[in-house]
Amino acid sequence: MPSRRRAAYGKRMGLPSGLTASVTLKVEDGDTALAIGSGDVPVLATPRLVTLVEQASVKALGGKLGPDKTSVGYKETLWRWRVAIQNDFAARMDWTVKPVREANHAPVARLRHADVMTVKTGERVVLDAGGSSDPDGDSLTYRWFHYPEAGSWKTPIPLQLADNLYRRPFTAPKVQRRETAHFILELTDKGTPALTRYRRVIVNIDPESYP
Questions:
Q1: DSSP state of 72
Q2: Which ranges of 80-193 would DSSP assign to H, the alpha helix?
Q3: Residue 176 reports pLDDT greater than 80
Q4: Angle at 134 between CA 131 and CA 140, to 5 degrees
Q5: Per the omega criterion (within 30 degrees of 0), is the bond before 156 cis?
């Protein structure tokens, strides 16, 4: 992106100038273009380089963008998923060259309730992913969040308790008609590369007088 466009984008998004980030990649035989099949010379493969650049971009913007802001352009809805996408690709490359025990495998996200539920205004709702696990025995990081882009209810719904808990309650907002709110579980393991899996819960919220 030209410097003038970068400056305009940063100003519009409320970002400070001169953001930088440092990430590292340990280059091994399986990271070369020859190993991946993307070229005929033993240099760092383009997919690995793209992964490195994307990770640096995400790290530089970490905590700088609000929950309702993403990057510009036709890929903007993918911004929040980029690290997970790139790590998933890297893991799949590992699966082609590493023994099963040396490669990381994705966690399994499970819910302790239905993935579609109907509640009333003011009702306490508990999102629970306590049945989740990891095939490699890695510890897990849980992140629940309201996904307003997908539902009819656009006002952010705050979740209670600490962020990294598999069980997060919230209070259904006051509505005048049936509204739909979508919630996402982002489940990430502590392997290398860290892999993420998702589950969606759709909550129909009815007003008190709804039949």
A1: S
A2: 82-97
A3: yes
A4: 80
A5: no
Residues 161, 166, 171, 176: is their CA dihedral positive or negative? positive
Closest CA to 91 of 107, 102, 103: 103
> Span 149-175, mean pLDDT?
94
Strand partners, 185: 144, 199
pLDDT digits (tens, 9 = 90+) for 68-82: 555 444 445 566 788
> Tens digit of pLDDT for each residue in 75-131?
455 667 888 888 999 999 999 999 999 999 999 999 999 999 999 999 999 999 999
| Eight-class DSSP state of 150 | T
Q: Hey, what domains does the chain have and what are their CATH numbers? A: 3-102 (no CATH), 116-206 (2.60.40.10)
- Whether 61 and 76 have beta carbons less than 8 Å apart is answered as no
